[in-house]
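Run: sequence + 6-O-phosphono-beta-D-fructofuranose -> complex structure.
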Amino acid sequence: MVKKKKFKRIAVFTSGGDAPGMNAAIRAVVRTALNYGIEVYGIVRAYDGMIKGDIIKLSSKDVGGIIQRGGTILQSARSVEFRTKEGREKAYNNLLDKGIEALVAVGGDGTFTGATIFHKEYGIPVIGVPGTIDNDLFGSDSTIGYDTAMNTVIDAVDKLKDTASSHDRLFFVEVMGRDAGFIALNTGIASGAEAILIPESRTYINDLIITLKENKRKGKKSGIIIVAEGDDFGGAYEVARKVKELDSSYSTRVTVLGHVQRGGSPTLADRVLASRLGFAAVEALNLGHNNEMVGIVDGKVSYTSLDLAIKSHSPINKELLRIARILSI
Ligand code: F6P
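>> structure
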């Protein structure tokens, strides 16, 4: 059991690749804390701002009208200096100067890596909120931004399907996820892709060629191949080049969706998820939790140590993989 705590002042920041819904999380942290009479500070540009002392007091009004906005009003940055002891010491002294007693870190595995080192060095309570489109953190069924990014992908792929069928073309569409295939697998199923290549299952180009030949035999002259950016074969350009080399009869094009997946107004699902997790983060601090990530597992708030959240990936859903194969024929 953890000991309840009464904080006077906490800070929140967003870090790593930004994700739609981060603003909703900031809003929830600020308003939940103020509800408990806790002052909230925002750290601008994550660990960079912590080291520079770019730390601003936030009011309820400051987070008004942002729930629907993509990006993050506190911005984000990756900080090399925070990887040094001197950098972390500067950061900690800035927090002390402001009287900040605990942190809520909204971000991904890089964010949590820094947070857990900082916690172990200075003992400051830290709660992680999973904010990354990759969905590659253990301890939450979804991460903030994942749903919005996937909806952005299927919207784009639906458009590509139109032009692919107009020109009897194969489109190789590369999606984000760094080294996880969750976005690729789910958007591949949702967009009816002919093939989905993900880092979690080895890509055999000859198998892909067989699938494509079979489709052509059945009269499918165009198609979509979703390629996760972390796929073991390389990105969409690599795969397209190899397919063309092995069978030049195909007309192929490549679309790398890139950072389009990182923007846009968060979906309802991400706004609710972010609101729940921002609220849960402050509740967790009050309950005495620290060095943990809050998540939603089977609809309920869960707590996972930051170390575990970083180290383990949620496994790829094998049933979804099977469904993808069967439904894409
Ligand atoms: O972690 C989120 C993410 O969008 C990954 O999917 C992607 O590989 C990476 O960030 C891109 O990083 P950057 O925004 O620094 O180019």
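>> summary
Residues 16-17, 108, 132-134, 176-178, 229, 262 surround 6-O-phosphono-beta-D-fructofuranose (CB under 6 Å). The chain has a mean pLDDT of 96.
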